[in-house]
Every structure is written in C-alpha cells, then in structure tokens.
Amino acid sequence: MTPIISISGLSKTYASGFQALKHINLEIQRGEIFALLGPNGAGKTTLISIICGLVNPTEGTVLADGHNIITDYRAARSKIGLVPQELTNDAFETVWNTVSFSRGLFGKRAHPAHIEKVLKDLSLWSKKDNRLMTLSGGMKRRVLIAKALSHEPQILFLDEPTAGVDVELRKEMWAMVRSLRATGVTVILTTHYIEEAEEMADRVGVINNGELILVEEKTELMRKLGKKQLILQLQNALPNVPEALAAYALELSADGDQLTYTYDTRREHSSIPALLRDLHDNSIVFKDLQTTQSSLEDIFVKLLKEQS
C-alpha cells in the first residue's frame, strides 16, 4: 500500500545553527492513527510545520498523498488539515463564519451541508451563531478542529489536541478522532499525554533531539519493550532472599513480606511455574499474588534514558 505521507532524508537547520531535525525517514499509512511522542524541544512541531508547508526544510523530501510539499504545494496542502497548539481565532467572529471562511481559503466552494455536519459531529451546532470570544477553552479547541476539517482533508494533524482541556472533554475528543479514522482520515497527533497515545494510536514514533529514534506498532512496542512484574505477598516475612533463588533476581521489600519478580514480556512464561516450584521447595509460602505491566509511559521514559 502506498503511504499517504512519505518523508525521506528530512533535516532542518535554522539560521542560528540549531539543527531541529536530523535526517528523518518516515512513512505514515493511509487511515491510521499515528502518535508522535517526544519531550519539549524534540522537533515534533517543526516536523509537523514542514509537512504542512509552514516551515521550509533544509534538505529532504516530503510527499503528501503523492504530492511534493514544495513543488506541488497547493495540491499537497489541500490534502492536509492542521489543528495547532495555540488557540488563535478572530474573537469577534461567529463559529459558522469562522469555519466557512477556512474552507474558502482552500479554494473550495461553499458547502453548508458539510459545515453543518462538521459542527454537529463536534457538538458545536448549538454554538454556530456564537462569537468565539464567548466560548470556553474546550469549545474553542473544537472550533480549531472544525476549521481543519472544513475543506475535507485526507490527513489531519493534531498538535497537542487536548492540552488544557478536562478529562471528560479529552475522552470525547478521543472518540471524535476514532470516528474520523473510521471515515478514512489519517490522523497524526503529537501529545504530552502518554495515555492519549496508548488509548488511540495504531503506531507510535518517538523523536528526541531532532532524531526519530523509534517507530513501531503500539502493541508490538509494548510487547517488545514492556516488562511484567509478579508480586507475591508472603505468609511469613523473610530476612533475605535465599541463595537458591538468586537466578530469579527477586526483590524483597523492606519489611520482608513481599517478593517482586520482573520478567521480560518477550520471554515465555515458563519461568513463573519454575519460580513457584522453587518457592515451594524452599518452604516459602505466599498468600496472594498479582501482576503488573509497564505502560507506554514507562517505555517512553526508558527509551529517552537509554538515548541520553
């Protein structure tokens, strides 16, 4: 399948000499939700800005649905909708006029039925005649999304889409993003909320210091880099871990009544029955056990530590 976005050898060095991006190669598939993660200053916004035609690259090529963003700018940009981080709107304009005007900027003819559908999908229909200055921060962010969707793009960029909104609205926006994907729109989002990527993304890319250090399917990433822990609550406290169990690298709690076994999710679980047998052979009795698994945030932090 031909990717909807293809990035090859992309670099950006500003006049100050700061290199924001370093030889980025990336393909994003049609209809997927792709999450781009990274700390502040990693290069996320610069990468999005280049793809959307707001910043010129120093070198490299970017194709949006087969159109070169430099040599075929108009066609490429018409395929893309961008929801920026900052809430920038004309405070005195109405919701309807703002979204309709945005469609016109792309040379699209008026299409009231489409604008109505977008506003209804974003729960903005009841606010269509309201001036933007009267809206809450969450509603203003919805208007930004409506503007980005006004010209019927095939690619939607969400740059920190839920920054500053409450948990309830965040979950509503997650549902909205999924519904967009269901219509065939490709969604690329940057986020500081790791749970957002864990909840929604099909694939995850991690960028740091201008370099794309990893691109992986979310489920595969968590399988390969995630860890599980088996936590055993002991019947009787131990003064230390018996030498016979040293191979398991067990951690004993300070009060001696809990053992923790950490194992790689890539390994077979056959080590757990062996551990339980060895505990029995050493007369160690547990009264309860539970397992925990590392989150995407744990993996993200680990990757950044390994690179630093």
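(ticket continues) Second input and output from the same batch:
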Amino acid sequence: MPPIISISKLSKTYATGHHALKAIDLTIDRGEIFALLGPNGAGKTTLISILCGIVTPSEGEALVDGHDIVRDYRAARSLIGLVPQELTTDHFESVWSTVTFSRGLFGKPKNPAVVEKVLRDLSLWDKKDATIRTLSGGMKRRVLIAKALAHEPRVLFLDEPTAGVDVELRRDMWALVRGLRETGVTIILTTHYIEEAEEMADRIGVISKGELILTENKTDLMTKLGRKQLTLNLQEPLTAVPPQLAGHDLALAKDGSELVYTYDTQGDRTGITGLLTDLAAAGIHFRDLQTKQSSLEEIFVGLVSDRP
C-alpha cells in the first residue's frame, strides 16, 4: 500500500532569503503516528503549513493520498485536519456552531451525529451551547481539535497541540490520538514535549535548520543511539578516577561517592566485566549498582547539538 504522504525535495525560501526548508524527503505510512521534533525555527511549522496548503513551497513535490498539494489542492486539503498552535476561534460563536461550520467548509453535508461524537470524545458535549469566549484555555484547545476532526480527515496534523495545557488535557489528547490511529487516521505531531513523542509516536523525525537529519522507528532510534550508564555506589568516596581505570569511560558523581560508567548498547562488548575486574584490582568496593538507558530527550539534544 502506498504511503499516505509522500514528500520529495521539498524546499521553502522566503523573500528575505531565509531557507526554512532544504530538500526534504519523507514518506509517512497510513495509520502511523509520526512525531517531528526540532528546536524553535527548525522548520516544523513551515513543513506542516506547506502540506496543509497555507504556505506555497519554493521547490519540490508533496502528495497526500496521491493528490498533489499544489495542482490538486482541494482534494489534498479535504483529507487533512490541522490543529494549529494558536487559539484561533470565533469568540462569540457556540461550540456546536463553530464545529458544525468547520465541517461545512469542506463541503461535507450536515451530520449532527458526527459532530456529537467528536464533542463527546473531547469531553466538550456539556459545553456545546457555550460561547467560545467563556471557555478556559484548555477547553478552547479542545475546540480547535474538534474543528479539525469535524470533516472526518484521514490525516491529522497536531502542531504543538499540548503547549500550555494542563496534564489532564494532555492525557486526554494522548488517548484521543491513539483512538484515532485505531480507526486508520494518520497523525503527524510536532512537539517540544519529548515525553509526548516517546509516549505516542511510532516513528521519529528530527529536523534542524530546515534539514531533516534523521527519520527512524522510535524503538530502533533509542536502541541505535541510546547509551547506558552503570552507576556504582561506592563504599568510600574518591577524589579522582584512579589511573589504572583510565581505559574505561568513567566519571565521578555526588562528591565522589558514585562512579558512573557509560557504554554503547550496540557494542560487541559492554566492558562491564573488565571494569569490575579492574575495580577489584584497584581495591575499590561498591555497595550497589544500577543502570540507566538514555532517554529520547538526551538523544535528541545530542543530535541537534552535533549539527554545525
């Protein structure tokens, strides 16, 4: 089955000369949750805006379910729902009216049952008659999501969807996203919350300075680039790593009461056996030990900071 989104050599250069995107190549499969990570100004929102028909690309091609986003923009756009970063709603409309109107914008016939289901799924049903201006920030965010889902899109873009929202809404949204994926909806998520990508995504893309520097299955990414740390709680503190242990990647922590050994999870050997042997030979004893795997956040920071 062909991917639902196919991007080839997509670039965007603004009139100021700023290269926001540089020859992006990317495919996204049907029904997957794809997280796009990157620092501010990396090009995440520009990429989403191009795919949603808000910004015109300078070069390259993008297809949504086979429809070119420029030449066949109506068909492409009808398949897409977008939840933007900004809270942009008509403050004096009711929740029901604004969500129903959004459905009509895409030429969909009235279907109160669909609107009701969307509102109930987002815990908005009891607010259906309330005007937008009376809602809390979190509820307004839910309305944005409801508007994006009203025309039953097959692709949903979430651009920093939980920025500034409470923990309860974030959890509700995670549950909603998983439910949508189960119905076959493809979800593309940009986020600054690394734990959000780690929790939800099937695949991770990292963008920096307009370039897509990596796309990888989340589990494979953490396995390939992750490093483990073995922390030894010493019986007696050290003032420095003894010279006879210089061949190991060691660092002192907690005023010398811990010895931290970092090793590559992909190496043929971890080196732990040799380390323990050398520790015993040096007369260094420990009370306890524990291991820690690199988090996705640590991997992401390392990838971006390594870029020139």
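Agent notes: The longest strand covers residues 19-28. The chain has ten helices and 14 strands. Closing as not reproducible unless the customer responds.
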